[in-house]
Design a protein that fits this description.
There is one protein chain. The protein is an alpha+beta fold. It has two domains: 5-148, Jelly Rolls (Sandwich); 154-270, no CATH class. Helices cover 25% and strands 21% of the residues. It has helices spanning 19-23, 154-160, 167-173, 181-197, 216-230, 236-250, 267-270; strands spanning 5-11, 14-17, 30-31, 40-44, 50-57, 65-70, 75-77, 79-83, 92-97, 128-134, 143-148. The strands form two sheets. Strands 2-1-4-10-6-7 form a six-stranded antiparallel sheet. Helix 4 crosses helix 5 (216-230). The chain is globular. The N and C termini lie far apart (41 Å).
Length: 279
């Protein structure tokens, strides 16, 4: 399977491949009934410092997340872990940093057989490995819908486009539609495609972007553009305004990209100049 992100969930040490469900935000769901001895494994083409988790059924038990990285000599614990999902009780980012004082580094594995506790259960090549566990057993019905990148929420969208809070517009798009989350994920995909086109990142999943908050405003306008485009010709003017606002918001100089691919942002990378040509 050729994809930039592979996802597995363990149950008593036995791994199940949930890559298709986790990578497609439009459909699919996977059980996340993790116990304290289970892990959610993510193998990626490049190191990263955050992933957005969209749940389809939420955990009702208080639990703290631990993030571990597979290095040159074994698993080591990430630092500065901020669990925006509150133990999978809500949607959000899990963010973390690598310990600069640790002698180990996040190391690409030519073969998953080299990864402790993964071994010969799966065949994944030339990937970086991470795993997430929780301090308490999750509710048995907890289920994951998507792991990826999201730059803005509905609340962000409504702060710029209050008219899109209208349930009538949501129903005009799709019967019983309750939010614009799918359009926000689509906007994130469009932003990543544009960043690749400009050679700012080469990752299809945005792994090298170390500060996803930089794209919040651009995502708001791109989401609005997508929505207005889907509502018909009477919204052409609104669509055009949102498209123009998107181009302006994405025209930034410092994108804070992990150029070296070590999963960290050095002082030099913070000052690395990139940008769009103004027109």
């Amino acid at each position: 399977m050729f994809t930039s992100q592979r996802v597995f969930v363990s149950d008593g040490g036995v791994l199940t491949d949930i890559t298709l469900d986790a990578n497609d935000f439009r459909e699919g769901s996977a059980s996340m009934a993790l116990t304290t001895d289970d892990y959610l494994y993510i193998a990626s083409e490049r190191p990263f410092n955050s992933r957005y988790f969209k749940l389809s059924a939420y955990n009702a038990i208080s639990a703290n997340a631990t993030v571990e990285i597979w290095g040159s000599n074994g698993w080591f614990t990430a630092v500065d872990v901020v669990d925006g999902t509150n133990g999978f009780s809500e949607d959000g980012y899990i963010r973390f940093n690598l310990d600069r004082e640790n002698s180990q580094s996040w190391t690409k594995q030519d073969d998953s057989k080299n990864v402790l506790d993964v071994g010969s259960q799966v065949d994944v090549f030339r990937m970086y490995w991470l795993r997430v566990s929780f301090s308490a057993d999750l509710t048995g019905t907890t289920a994951l819908r998507h792991i990826g990148t999201l730059f803005s929420s509905d609340n962000d969208l409504f702060s710029y486009y209050p008219d899109l809070r209208n349930t009538g517009l949501m129903n005009a798009w799709e019967t019983a539609k309750a939010d614009w989350i799918e359009q926000s994920f689509a906007a994130a995909s469009e932003i990543l495609r544009e960043l690749r086109r400009k050679s700012i990142t080469y990752s299809r999943a945005g792994f090298s972007l170390m500060d996803v908050d930089l794209y919040n405003e651009a995502s708001i306008h791109k989401t609005a553009q997508i929505i207005y485009a889907g509502l018909g010709d009477s919204f052409d003017t609104s669509e055009a305004k949102a498209a123009k606002a998107f181009r302006t918001a994405l025209d930034i100089t410092y994108h804070r990209v992990d150029v070296t691919g070590d999963g960290q942002l050095s002082q030099g990378e913070k000052k690395f100049r990139t940008g769009f040509t103004r027109r």
